[in-house]
């Protein structure tokens, strides 16, 4: 089995449970802004619509088609307009409230801490994320993840977004290691797996829902639970 010295982790959807934390936040906002008074949708519908809109906007952001400001300003407008609210009925500060609340949530994927405890004495651990700098640092602090990682690279810090190989190369330069000494772990096939492969880095595709994607090159490894990393490393 190949020997690595450094492990690179994506954060959202890989360690930090974005969907669970986001869902809790959406439910809080539904009550906080009394959205039930409009009588047009329930809390579950609000979350499902937000998830649909947000996922697509993040895809556009990752592809460089929209910027951070456009993503943040449009996701709740598009969500609530799509659910039947008039523009004047949309709370003006709901996007900012989401940004303040969600990063303080602490849900992580099963075995996150156990696996990090197992890996930390053996490898240099690092985060490489397209998430926004201020938000990612709050998430990691609230979830007590900071102490495990040496470098935390965000797309804002280095000027590139995954899957751009230059973002991976920026991290490799900072830790002064060769691509073949690293292993990338992430849930996004395009950003994490294809991006790492393009930079010459082996990959672990984290696929907890065991989704069958379109025909594409296999990652170096594929797992559905973080505990499976102990079999690889």
From TrEMBL:
One Pfam family recorded for the sequence: Hydrolase
Organism name: Pontibacter korlensis
Entry keyword set: Hydrolase
GO MF term (any one): 5'-nucleotidase activity
Domain of life, per lineage: Bacteria
Coiled coil: none
Keyword Translocase: no
Keyword RNA-binding: no
Name listed for the protein in its UniProt record: HAD family hydrolase
InterPro entries: HAD-like_sf, HAD-SF_hydro_IA, HAD-SF_hydro_IA_YjjG/PynA, HAD_sf, PGP-like_dom2, Pyrimidine_5'-ntase_YjjG
Signal peptide, first to last residue: none
PANTHER family: PTHR47478, PYRIMIDINE 5'-NUCLEOTIDASE YJJG
